[in-house]
Design a protein that fits this description.
This protein has 540 residues and is an alpha/beta fold. It folds into two domains: 67-114 and 364-521, P-loop containing nucleotide triphosphate hydrolases (Rossmann fold); 132-354, P-loop containing nucleotide triphosphate hydrolases (Rossmann fold, 3-Layer(aba) Sandwich). The protein has 19 helices and 18 strands. It has helices spanning 2-18, 40-55, 117-120, 135-144, 153-163, 178-191, 213-230, 243-250, 263-271, 288-291, 294-306, 313-316, 337-342, 377-393, 407-419, 433-436, 439-445, 478-485, 506-521; strands at 25-26, 35-36, 67-71, 78-79, 106-109, 167-171, 206-209, 234-237, 258-261, 282-286, 325-330, 350-354, 366-371, 399-403, 425-427, 450-453, 466-471, 498-503. α5 (153-163) runs parallel beside α6.
Length: 540
C-alpha cells in the first residue's frame, strides 16, 4: 500500500515538471486535478499588459527624404517635411535625459538649408546705392571692404530709416551684417555735418558703445578703413586701464570723430571730465542686450543722461545745436527695453526692425547634442580636438571655439590640453587687460586653431573662419546659446559650421528640450519674445 502511494507521488511529480512550459495548466486525463504553474489572475494581468504595450507603440516618423532631427533611436527622428502643430505632442529624443542611464544618447538638428538666412531673400542686383548712400560712401566701401558686394536683408531694412534721421532698434540674428548697418549711415551723417571746435575736452561726434574690449577692437578695425577713406578719425577707448592710460588715449591728435568705447572706460572719462558728449550726433548701443544687463545698466544710464538724444528727425538737422540719433542693435533683446527708451526719447520716433529668424534655431547650422557624464566630457573633447588637429594638418579644417561657463574652467581645461600637447589660445574675463590684448585678433588671423573661452567671445565678435563651436559647459540661458551658436554660419563664413553641445546636468536638459521642441515645431525659442515689439509701434 505504501509502495503504491509512493509510485503515484513520483508519477505526479514527473508530470508536474515535464509539462510544456507554454501551458499554464496541465490536466492528465487519468488525474482529475490540474497542475497550475502560474496563477490565472497573474496570467490575465500579463496578457493585458502585453496587449497594452503593443497598442501604445509610437509610430515611426522616419520617412524617405532629408531629416530635420536625426536621433540615435530612428523612431524619434523627424523628416524635414513634417511640421508639428503648436499643441501637438512631439516625441522628444531628449525626453529621458535627466536619468543618468541616458548617458551616451545623442541627437542632432540637421542643416536644412545651405544659404545664410540674411542673404536668402536678397536680390542679386540689389546695391548699396539704392539704399541712399552717397557716391563718396560707396567709393569708401569698395576700397575698404571689397568683399562686401550686396547688402544683406538687415542692411537693406536698417540703412534707409537711419539716413532719414529715425531712431532705430534693430533685432536680428547673429552674423547678419549689423555692424555695417549702423556704421555706413553714421559716417555719412558726419560727412554732411561740420565739426565744431571743442574748447575744453575731446568731443566725439559719433559714439559706438560695446560691452567688451575685444568687440571694441573689432568694430574699430571695421570702421577705421572706412573713416580713413572719408577723412574721419576713428579711435578706440578700451577698459581695464587707469586714468593715465585713458588720458593718453584721448589726447591723441587729431581728436576722434568716431569713438568706439566700453562702458567702464567711457564712464571714467566722463566722470573725470576727460571727455565731453556735447557734440554727439550719433549714438550706437551695439550688443544692446548685454549692455542693458544689470552689470552694465547703471553705466549705460549715465551715458544716456549725458547724451542729448533727439526727440525726432527734425532735431537732428540743426548742425550748430547737435542732438544725437540713437541706434540699438542686438541678436536678442531683454524685457523692459521700451521702458529704458521712453526715458530718453519718444516711442513715436522709433523704427523697430526685426528679422524673420530672430530667436530661432539657425536652419543652416548643424547642432548636435550629446548626453554625457561629467567625467566623460574631457575624453570626448580631447578626441574631437585631436581629430581636428589631424584634419588641420591636411589643410581641410577651420578653427574651433570651446566655450566654458567660468574662467576657472577655461584655465583648468588649458592644463589638460597642455598635457595632451594640443596647441590653443585662452580668453576669459579675469585675465589682465595686457594679456587679453590681441588674443582674439591672433585667433582670427589663424595663428592658433583652437580658442578656449567664456561667453566674452560669444557677443558680436566676427568669426567667419570658425568651423566648429563646442559647448564644453552647456550655456546657462537660451540667449547665451543663441550667441554661441551664432559664431558659425555667418555672412561671409568660409565653412558651413557645426555646433556640438555636451549635456550633463538636469538644468541643461531643460534647455535642450526647449531647443529641440522649437526646432521640431519650426518656431522661435520660448521666453525670448521681447516687449520691444508690443508698446512700440512699427514705423516706416
Amino acid at each position: 500500500m505504501a509502495l503504491t502511494r509512493s509510485v503515484r507521488l513520483l508519477s505526479l511529480k514527473h508530470r508536474l515538471f515535464s509539462a510544456p512550459q507554454r501551458n499554464l495548466a496541465v490536466r492528465d486525463p487519468e488525474d482529475p486535478l490540474p497542475v497550475v504553474r502560474i496563477p490565472q489572475a497573474l496570467q490575465r494581468r500579463q496578457e493585458q499588459r502585453q496587449k497594452g504595450q503593443r497598442s501604445v507603440q509610437r509610430p515611426v516618423l522616419v520617412r524617405p527624404g532629408p531629416l530635420l532631427v536625426s536621433a540615435r533611436r530612428p523612431e524619434l527622428s523627424q523628416p524635414t517635411r513634417l511640421t508639428l502643430g503648436r499643441w501637438e505632442r512631439a516625441p522628444l529624443a531628449s525626453r529621458g535625459w535627466k536619468n543618468r542611464r541616458a548617458s551616451g544618447d545623442h541627437f542632432a538638428i540637421e542643416r536644412v538649408q545651405r544659404e545664410v538666412p540674411a542673404l536668402r531673400n536678397v536680390l542679386s542686383e540689389g546695391s548699396f546705392a539704392e539704399l541712399g548712400l552717397e557716391p563718396q560712401m560707396l567709393h569708401a566701401l569698395r576700397e575698404s571692404a571689397p568683399e562686401v558686394g550686396r547688402p544683406t536683408t538687415v542692411q537693406s531694412s536698417t540703412i534707409p530709416p537711419l539716413l532719414r534721421g529715425r531712431h532705430v532698434v534693430c533685432a536680428a540674428e547673429t552674423g547678419s551684417g549689423k555692424t555695417l548697418s549702423y556704421l555706413l549711415p553714421l559716417l555719412q551723417r558726419l560727412l554732411a555735418r561740420p565739426s565744431l571746435d571743442s574748447h575744453r575736452f575731446p568731443a566725439p561726434r559719433g559714439l559706438v558703445l560695446v560691452p567688451s574690449r575685444e568687440l571694441a577692437e573689432q568694430v574699430r578695425t571695421v570702421a577705421q578703413p572706412l573713416g580713413s577713406s572719408l577723412g574721419l578719425q576713428v579711435r578706440e577707448l578700451g577698459g581695464g586701464h587707469g586714468l593715465n592710460r585713458i588720458r593718453l588715449q584721448l589726447s591723441k591728435h587729431p581728436p576722434a570723430d568716431v569713438l568706439v568705447a566700453t562702458p567702464g572706460a567711457l564712464w571714467k572719462s566722463l566722470k573725470s571730465q576727460l571727455l565731453s558728449l556735447e557734440q554727439l550726433s550719433f549714438l550706437v548701443l551695439d550688443e544692446a542686450d548685454t549692455l542693458l544687463d544689470e552689470s552694465f545698466l547703471e553705466l549705460v544710464d549715465y551715458v544716456l543722461e549725458k547724451s542729448n538724444i533727439a526727440e525726432g528727425p527734425g532735431d537732428i538737422e540743426d548742425p550748430f545745436h547737435p542732438k544725437a540719433q540713437l541706434v540699438l542693435v542686438g541678436a536678442t533683446f531683454p524685457e523692459g527695453v521700451s521702458q529704458l527708451l521712453s526715458k530718453v526719447t519718444s516711442p513715436d520716433s522709433l523704427t523697430i526692425i526685426t528679422s524673420s529668424k530672430l530667436h530661432c534655431v539657425m536652419p543652416h547650422v548643424k547642432q548636435t547634442f550629446m548626453r554625457l557624464k561629467g567625467t566623460e566630457k574631457v575624453t570626448e573633447l580631447v578626441q574631437i580636438l585631436k581629430q581636428h588637429d589631424k584634419a588641420n594638418r591636411t589643410g581641410h579644417s577651420g578653427s574651433i571655439l570651446v566655450f566654458c561657463n567660468s574662467s576657472s574652467t577655461v584655465n583648468w581645461l588649458g592644463y589638460i590640453l597642455d598635457d595632451h600637447k594640443i596647441q590653443y589660445l585662452r580668453l576669459q574675463g579675469q585675465m589682465p587687460a595686457s594679456m587679453r590684448v590681441g588674443i582674439f585678433q591672433c585667433f582670427q588671423k589663424g595663428s592658433q586653431g583652437i580658442l578656449l573661452c567664456t561667453d566674452i567671445a560669444s557677443r558680436g565678435l566676427d568669426s567667419t573662419h570658425v568651423e566648429l563651436v563646442i559647448n564644453y559647459d552647456f550655456p546657462l540661458t537660451l540667449q547665451d546659446y543663441i550667441h554661441r551658436a551664432g559664431r558659425v554660419g555667418r555672412v561671409g563664413s568660409e565653412v558651413p559650421g557645426t555646433v556640438i553641445s555636451f549635456v550633463t546636468h538636469p538644468w541643461d536638459v531643460d534647455l535642450v528640450q526647449k531647443i529641440e521642441l522649437a526646432a521640431r515645431r519650426k518656431r522661435s525659442l520660448p521666453g525670448l519674445q521681447s516687449s520691444v515689439r508690443e508698446p512700440l509701434p512699427q514705423q516706416t
